[in-house]
Design brief:
With 713 residues, this protein is α+β, with helices and mostly antiparallel strands. It is 53% helix and 12% strand.
Length: 713
Amino acid sequence: MIINENKKTVIYILIAFIFSVAIRLIWVYQFSDTEQFKFNNQFMINTNDGYYFAEGARDILAGIKEDTNDLSPFESANSILTAFIAKILPFSFESIIFYMPVFFSSLLVIPVILIGKSIGNLEAGFIAALLSSIAWSYYNRTMAGYYDTDLLNIVFPTFLLWSLIEAFKTRENKYLLFTALDIILYRWWYPQSYALEFVFFGLIALCIIYQYIKKQDFKYNLILATFMIFSMMWIDVWIRFAIVIFLYIALTLKKDLVLKYLYYLFGFSLLLLMFTGGFNPIWGSLKGYVFKDSVEVIGSDFQLHFFSVVQTIREAGKIPFEVFANRISGHTTTFIVSIIGYIYLVSKHRVMLLSLPMVGLGFLAYSGGLRFTVYAVPILALGIGFLIVKSCNPIKNKIKRYSVMTFLTTLILVPNIKHVIDYKVSTVFIKDEVNVLNKLKTIASREDYVVGWWDYGYPIRYYADVKTLSDGGKHRGSVNFPTSFVLTNPQVEASKMLRLDVEYTEETFLIDKLNEDKNQSEKIKRINNIGQMTLDYGFNDTNDFLTSLQTDIKLPEKTRDIYLYLPNRMINIYPTITFFSNIDLMTGIKRDKPFFYQTKNFKETKKAIDLGNNIKMSRQIGKLYIREKEMTINKFTKTYYDKNGKLQTEERTIDSRSNLNVIFMANYKQFLVVENRVYNSLYFQLFIFENYNRTLFEPVILTPLAKVYKLKI
């Protein structure tokens, strides 16, 4: 039986889609019996940012339509789509957000196979679909539980590439509409898509210039560029949609009229693009990921220097070549062959030059951060798929040809499948941690604040249904400084900063709302919280203000309760937390890092305990040896939980003049060696020792994995 190309395309798409879904279910199979990864008998998600969109979808389903400064994204595309699916499908909300990445990300196989069909090589598209759907970086960001915008972030631009290729090849009007609608949907789904859209537009503009110089007909491409500009403008999505539909209808019914005024229409669209701030998002993206500063300076009249959070985000840092290659193709050899295949593909099909924006953005990852590698995945997969098919074409025997193609395809898939099997990531929180937040939900109100580090902001808001000071989207240096100060300073100063930062945050919300109805000259000017506190308390130097927190200063009136969320996992990132407040805000000079050493790999002998990394502790005289240098210990403290689950602390002072302390957390089987300021910090005193100032804090929930305290002032 002879199968026509359209039927073969559908069959290839179904096979590739099922393959992609099946591979993503490996994680589910591996952890099917891991109860700590489940809540309410359903798997929890494994990306922090996912809880942001889950919160929005939850609020949509609950009928919450008014923003009460809790920053719930009930207007975001992901939240809207999730809520819609939850309404029409008979599955639990937790199951929907967990499995959405599995099915939606697998849609990538459709445009990849369609591109293969567009260049007359359907088999190359099929091979590319298999590879790209499970390649390292794409899998990592779209696996089961990775509920984020990434589940469609590559699907949309790949569809855009396909529609542009078809537009160039066929010059049919329907691809003008497909291109514009894809851009509109892509922007609705992911507002940061503008930079990539703009580069695609730039390529079309270059083609127009080339055609103009060569005196070729460029009107179709000029119409294409006009459609793209109208769909790219920074105006309401429905207005853009209406403009594009109107333009398409006009082109269909009155083509001669549109062509007559085409130059005016294009110029008008270009002016509108510029007027609506067409270049601002691009500069913002470059500043954030390419021109990275270690310190951010905020303010004009009163300048403060804050530690830049981008320096701590792994996905925004430079990566080794091997990691770069593996994330795109699964193996260095596969990557190199894919490059060769891509060059060969472009040489045979010049229309594939349109894929350069995605390849370029993917290669930006080598210096700009691993998150970008995913954009190059489908394009280089097409490159190696094309090379495999072309290499096998000389084999005349059809069975042998397809056997060799299958063998070569298997070779490039195996490293990626092995990565999937080995990539056993945990859920964001485990069940016992979520139980703490779920219990807190019954204690705190929606207007109360739960303060923890920004990494935990979204999950805290989702499970406890409260407000937070920082989260995955709100974590600038100026935002993180107060929280870092709270966690790394003594309880007296920390408690005052807690009350100040929460009340100033709420006051800022109020001022922003008042400013919405005022003219520019009438707007109330306000800088970041720390700077505003400094000025309000009559200081010109923030260092003086921070010192004043040790005194009996007057605090703002209490408007809500504040809770501290202190998880055990925070110990691992404590040194990173200190970066944000261990800086002179007036000069930007970073202060010396406090000594902090954590280990679970230690060996005991009769004379000493080897803590690793050339650090040993003598048993008899309580001395430390760091790189052969002998040091005395201030305090040696042992913590453990008794039979009743109560924390017990045994503290022994050895040399009060020393600046180093050793902590042995028996139940956690770990040692900590820290300076006095770390030992006396709020986090250490409240979480590790449960030694809280009873006039400032009261315990609410105390478990070995997470502890919650309520601020009393």
